[in-house]
Please model this.
Amino acid sequence: MARKLFSIRGSEITESGIFKSTHALDAPLWRDGVNVIFKNGGAQKIGGSTQLASQSVTSPVRGAEAYQLSDNIQRLFFGTTDKLYMYVPGSGVTQEGTGYSGNEHEGATSIATTWSFTSFGDIVIATNGTSAPQIWKLTTDAFAALSSETGATGVPSTAEIVMRIRGHILFFNTNAGDNTVAFSDVENPAIYTASSTNAAGSLVVRDMNGAIKAAVPFKDGALVLGKDQAFIVKHVGSPFFFTYKQVTTGIGAVSKASVIVVNNIAYGMGQRGIWQFDGLNYRYIDTPALQEFIQANWEDSELSKVCATYDLENKTIYWFIPTSNNAENSIGVVYNVQNGSWSRIDFGRTAAVPYMGAFKHPYMFAHSSSTASLRSHNTEVNDNGSALTATLTSKPLDFNEAGAFKSITFVSLQMRTLTGTVNVRLGTQNNLDDSVSFSSSTALDDGFEKINVRQTGRFITLEVSSSATGANWAMTGFDMYGVPAGRIWCLYFLNVDKMKKQTNI
Model:
């Protein structure tokens, strides 16, 4: 008679995430998965997306930000190498500026052009590192060169990053030097020439051994990152107004959009991996789960395209990454800031609003041919009406008896959500270097029925998948039933019965 050989329910292990870069047996539970996330004691299919607008563009969208100004209208600003746009819900996309220059791809001495945005009251300032910084006003509804503002002085001719701190506009990595910060007079975003009567000026981060790669608001200043160094730029008041302090070495940024701050913790992707920094200490969080996978698949020559965003609904950070077979961001990795779980996705986004901004759902840009597609995520189960495939695979389970054969007859899944066609199958291996031999797939009727699988081997792998439109699922545990299959296995069960020991991972 078949007996329960393995059982697990919603726990830290079921929501531990995938461990693709470890030895197979070292994973807590899940070896691999795509388009799934881990929360609420288990795994679930990632949310789908809805297209909000499309725009014919000569190059992908790089850089986006959302604001709600004094008129209470939600606006999303975004840019390509040569144009700036604005999206307003219900009104669509309008072109707000043109005539810019930039680099669609990273070169030996240049990075892929990405726009950086900040707001200042009812104005928006944008810069991309190759064209003159731009200003948009609610009163004029169009971008124009910041240097053309009445009374403007000392505006950098180029700058990679723009930020607002304590009433000042700060430009990072300017034409004056790739380790230079220019800051405006307080409450006057057009004045950058220092005088005895203003609070404008510049700051050179002299201890940085290279260019400023990224800068993000952090605590009461800005976290500024090079290739492998981190500094804090902080407002100190008259007479210097801003100063800097090196806070650590060993972390850096691959792109200006690869760093994000969530709940006063900075997360970023550098050449060595993905890190977390609290202002005092850092640690690399992608090891052992995914670090080797990420670095084996990214395209080193296009890392300036990496972009990150935060999904408040799911408490997850996305990093979209260019791969060796696709110069654009074509895959992503996802980190849950609450439980530390990792997952991966098989689609890319060229730009995303880095925070929730003015909108309820995460807004991201897909790119196909010469068309940019603005997507709102977590709004449906499909990928803009098409099927969104999701797969989750366990590690090879040995039930603490790697040498014994296991004969599995039934499997039962505990599904918190189940709609559409969701399939399950079991795989077996006699040795870990063997390829996994899978049973045929069986569709789930409900979340608890026993499914006849009939598989025998030393190592057992569970796979749950869906590839049909309308499919959605969330799983919090599963049971496996079987019978002894071999002398070692029988002796093991005699011991289990004798010692009243429960089989576990």
